[in-house]
C-alpha cells in the first residue's frame, strides 16, 4: 500500500512474451507488429516513457489508497464498482459517447485534452457519413449470441 504520486522511472525488467511469428509462414509478422528491432528488444525504454504510460494507473491507485485510509475498505470497492459500470457503453453502437461519467470519476472533467476538441474526428469509423443503425444493431446482437 504505497502512496506513490508518480510511477517508477525504472521498472523491473519485463521480458516480452509476445509471439510475433506469422501462423502460416513462421517468420516475424511485420504488418501486424511493425518492423523488428533488436535494439528495442534488448535496451530498456526511456524512463519518462514508462512514467507517461503508467501515469493514469498510478493516480487511480493513489486515489483508491487515499479513499481506503480516509473512509474504510468500502470506499475503493464502491469506486471500482462505479468505474466498471460506467466503462460499459450503453448507447446505440453508432452514436459517439463522450462518457462524461467516467471523466468525472477519473477526475478528467476539469482538464482539456485533445479528445475534447477533436471529438473523434481522427477516427474515420466515427464518421457520420454512413449511419446504418439497423446493421449496427444486428451486428451487436450477433456478438452477444
From TrEMBL:
Keyword Ion transport: no
Keyword Chaperone: yes
An annotated GO BP: proteasome assembly
UniProt keyword list: Chaperone
InterPro entries xref list: Ump1
Superkingdom, natural source: Eukaryota
Pfam families xrefs: UMP1
GO cellular component: cytoplasm; nucleus
Family: Belongs to the POMP/UMP1 family.
Name of the featured protein: Proteasome maturation factor UMP1
Organism of this sequence: Parasitella parasitica
Gene name of the encoded protein: PARPA_01724.1 scaffold 1359
